[in-house]
Amino acid sequence: MTVLPVTPLEGTHLVVGSGEVGSAVAVLLAEAGRDVVLVSRRGRGPEHERIRRVAADASSLAALMGAEPNAVAIYNCVNPEYTRWTVDWPPMAAAFLAYAETTGAVLATVSNLYGYGPVDVPMTESLPLAATGTKARVRVTMWQEAKAANDAGRIRATEVRGSDYICPGAQSMLGERVVPRVLAGKSVQLVGDIDQPHSWTAPVDVARTLITVASDPRGWGRAWHVPSNPPRSQREAVGDIAKAAAVPPVKVSRLPAIMLWAVGLVQPTIRELKETDYQRERPYLIDDEAARATFGLEPTAWDDILTELVAHYRAAAAQPSA
């Protein structure tokens, strides 16, 4: 069980989104003795006696109030379809702001590093949010509006930003497109320069950081970077996965640009990657010193992350349906 470095706020917590991060937030809060209402489109999520799962529309203030009218904190862990950020995010962000202002709940948002745009230094929270990409500007606007409301005394808001996730599933660059092939001894093709140093963030560390900054007044009114392990290139990370699985290393290569373009013709999500090409073509490094120094947070050990990742896919492969 992952231990929280803080005592979460007393009262019921409203978690919106039941993906990797939202589920981890809900479980951590429940294990810490807090009642949790977990909202998702279909009412899914982990089972726990302290977690009540609700199917609701996250873009509706009325639906959020109906799910839980008196939460002490609302956690925005939603993950809309990558191609629909400009459509889905604004109404949801407005609903979260309105909920926080109506109830007095702390608004804690999970975000990413898109807002900084291409930079040549490790990213700190003090860098300007200068990105020009469409998806990046959506996330920047969300934070600017939440911070303005915080600074005006209307709400208490905070945000955490992690790098690319390392976890099971298609959401991770090192998930279902990599681990099953490594376990089968097959070669792996990856997008971008596979030898550039890259920061990777574990969803459970996002969850721990999010709860911590929501529960501590020092966390309000600013953004925080999630503590992450030292950078590893994509090639190195695949080698580390093979080592964790105790299997021979596999060949790792770059997906040819022409092939990526061809796939993009039929897969809109792949086309959308164009905006963030720079993240995979140059060093992509997170500076997480602020959260470490302020809250004593540390990332989950790299070897532990990989061991759990491999165990997940081995267990999945052992299922009859697999």
Describe this structure in words.
By secondary structure, the chain is of the alpha/beta class. It contains twelve helices and eleven strands. Helix 1 (20-31) crosses helix 6, helix 3 runs parallel beside helix 4 (134-151) and helix 7 (234-245) crosses helix 12 (302-318). The longest helix is centred in the N-terminal third of the chain and has 19 residues, at 85-103. The chain is globular.
Strand order of the largest sheet: 3-2-1-4-5-6-10
Radius of gyration: 19 Å
Structural class by sheet pairing and helices: alpha/beta
Tell me the series of helices and strands, N- to C-terminal.
EHEEHEHEHEEHEEHEHEHHHHH
* Portion of residues within helices: 40-55%
Indicate the mean pLDDT. 94
Question: Judging from the principal axes of the Cα atoms, what is the shape?
Answer: globular
In whole angstroms, the N-to-C terminal distance is: 28 Å
Let me know the number of strands: 11
In short:
By secondary structure, the protein is an alpha/beta fold. The chain has helices at residues 20-31, 61-67, 85-103, 134-151, 179-183, 203-215, 234-245, 257-266, 268-272, 278-281, 289-295, 302-318, and strands spanning 13-16, 36-40, 51-55, 73-76, 106-112, 156-162, 164-165, 188-190, 200-201, 223-225, 252-254.
Keywords:
322 residues, alpha/beta, seven-stranded parallel β-sheet, two-stranded parallel sheet, 11 strands, 40% helix, globular
Give the helices and strands, then pairings.
Elements lengths: L12 E4 L3 H12 L4 E5 L10 E5 L5 H7 L5 E4 L8 H19 L2 E7 L21 H18 L4 E7 L1 E2 L13 H5 L4 E3 L9 E2 L1 H13 L7 E3 L8 H12 L6 E3 L2 H10 L1 H5 L5 H4 L7 H7 L6 H17 L4
Parallel strand pairs: 1-2, 1-4, 2-3, 4-5, 5-6, 6-10, 7-9, 8-11
Helix pairs in contact: 1-6, 3-4, 7-12
